[in-house]
Amino acid sequence: MAQTAVPSTSAAGERPAPVGIPLREILPWAVFAAVLGAVLIYFVGAEQGATSLIGGTWVHEFTHDGRHLLGFPCH
Ligand SMILES: [Zn+2]
User: Fold this and answer.
1) 3 state SS for 26-75
2) In 10 A of CB 67, how many CB atoms?
3) H or E stretch at 23
4) What is the 11 CA–ligand 1 centroid distance (Å)?
5) CA atoms within 13 A on the CB side of 14
6) Is residue 10's pLDDT more than 70?
7) What is the whole-number distance in angstroms between the Cα of residue 42 and the centre of ligand 1?
8) What is the pLDDT of residue 60?
9) CA 38 to ligand 1 centroid distance, Å
10) Alpha carbon distance 52, 23 (integer Å)
């Protein structure tokens, strides 16, 4: 007989109440992670040439390996 970490039924045959996911607590962190991810994708994938917001090539050089790893066109 297979055993699980959480019993599916109690001795009386009742199932435990499911644990709710607190969306109101998760939403600000999800938005923050999405914005941070978008900024990272921008700097890795598009911060070069005509779309560059920061002068010089240090951002391009800093994210160069990540650009190649993720398959963004580079050189
Ligand atoms: Zn390159």
Assistant:
1) HHHHHHHHHHHHHHHHHHHHCCCHHHCCCCCCHHHHHCHHHHHHHCCCCC
2) 19
3) helix 23-45
4) 63
5) 4
6) no
7) 16
8) 83
9) 21
10) 36
Query: How far is the centre of ligand 1, averaged over its atoms, from the C-alpha of 63 (Å)?
Result: 9
pLDDT tens digits for range 11-67: 667 889 998 888 899 999 999 999 999 998 888 888 777 777 777 788 888 888 888
- Amino acid identity for residue 22 in this structure: P
Query: What distance in angstroms lies between residue 75's CA and the mean position of ligand 1's atoms?
Result: 5
Q: How far is the CA of 34 from the centre of ligand 1 (A)?
A: 26
**Tokens linked to 33:** 């992670």
Q: How far is the CA of 36 from the centre of ligand 1 (A)?
A: 23
Residue 67 to residue 9: CA distance in whole angstroms: 51
